[in-house]
């Protein structure tokens, strides 16, 4: 039986000591940064309470809670409506043997309850447009329609209709529509690639399969994204859920939600990020590094709870879409972040954008740029999103080039440190939800900082890169990851010098490889 610690056990004693030192440096730096941010939050709690999103909480008499994450607050309030509908659908599917067409009717009814009649009619009409475009078997028409829908978000009449709604209704309609567009693109491409098989069945059946996929209730609001071909296969051949897997699933969802709630009573990254301009000069660089780490951890916990919850109900309704995000603490390569944090989005980008571009021999750089342009328009075209996408695209190109050309263990970790720094800063534009926050992190930590401090940051990132290669092997060889993860890293122990090289084998081309590998 394979042990996840086998790669570590194969190292020489000297190399184990070296790796343990790297691990100690990285964990100490992260812990000290988080501790400094905790002290900052406690020292400025009264100011933050009057100027931002801190509110009295239930934990103890004088406790406050950071409620500045709009998305988390929205889903906490919306689950009172969404979860009962999901439970009812699960009961109809598993215990009442309701036919598929009645389940589709229930999904449309639930859609009407959550986003209103006008929103449902709009989404049905939008789905109809994509369906008829798919029948033309012209992929470029699909993208023309998708781009037009994305631009409609910024057209005044459409915004005027949405602005008349409550802010939560506005978010629910926009979020569900964005995921609907992704599912429509997936259907249109899969229909075109399987045109002979699809044309062999009645058009009415094809339309029913499409609507069942487009309005599948567990994946309607926040994903995760499941391609049409994968959805159809899993819906036709549902698998039994083992009891242990069921309990583990529930445990991870509940634990993530509880940790998010508890941590928000002691750390206030969402309130601080909105006041970063006023707090300039009062926050130490260690505390600034701590808020970067805290934002990443909160983001991971949030999507472990959200993706886990809706994947859980999807699994109970016959479609296995288990996609827990990767841990951000040890992720030293942001290609892994793109591939395993939101794996459904990654597969979509790879299958429907990167590969079609690559088949036209436009080059890896242009193909990956097409993926990032879609990500930009899908999330919203703003200055901080543009900085996030642009810096991430550059960093991932440099990272991929590095890991293809350099095989020496220490040299690769050393050269990856500044690339890792760029990737972290790029994500602060995204997680900080403002240009000012990302600019503050970039300038104070990497630009206008003492050279010795910058060297210390890079050394900590070097340690993370070195130990991250080992963690990558230990994690990816576990059976909990899907079979599509190739065994692409070999760790060899050189007896004489006690040196270890981490070499990447070139895996066979797959449909779900990283789109940003330029």
Describe the structure.
This protein folds into two domains: 6-69 and 242-504, no CATH class; 71-226. Helix content is 70%, strand content 3%. The protein is built from 21 helices and four strands. The strands form two sheets. The chain has a two-stranded antiparallel sheet with strand order 1-2. A two-stranded antiparallel ribbon has the order 3-4. Strand 1 (54-56) and strand 2 form a beta hairpin. Helix 2 (13-43) packs across helix 21, helix 5 crosses helix 10 (203-214) and helix 16 crosses helix 17 (364-379). The relative contact order is 0.11.
Strand count, sense and barrel status of the largest sheet are: 2 strands, antiparallel
Instruction: Give the overall pLDDT as a whole number.
Output: 81
Strand order within the widest sheet? 1-2
Number of helices: 21
Summary, kept brief:
The chain is mainly α and 518 residues long. Helix content is 70%, strand content 3%. It has helices spanning 6-9, 13-43, 45-51, 70-94, 100-135, 139-152, 156-163, 167-193, 195-199, 203-214, 228-236, 243-263, 269-274, 285-316, 334-340, 343-359, 364-379, 383-405, 409-431, 435-447, 451-476, and strands at residues 54-56, 64-66, 489-493, 500-504.
Key attributes of the depicted protein:
mainly alpha; 518 residues; globular; 4 strands; 2 domains
Explain the layout of strands and helices.
Elements: H1 6-9, H2 13-43, H3 45-51, E1 54-56, E2 64-66, H4 70-94, H5 100-135, H6 139-152, H7 156-163, H8 167-193, H9 195-199, H10 203-214, H11 228-236, H12 243-263, H13 269-274, H14 285-316, H15 334-340, H16 343-359, H17 364-379, H18 383-405, H19 409-431, H20 435-447, H21 451-476, E3 489-493, E4 500-504
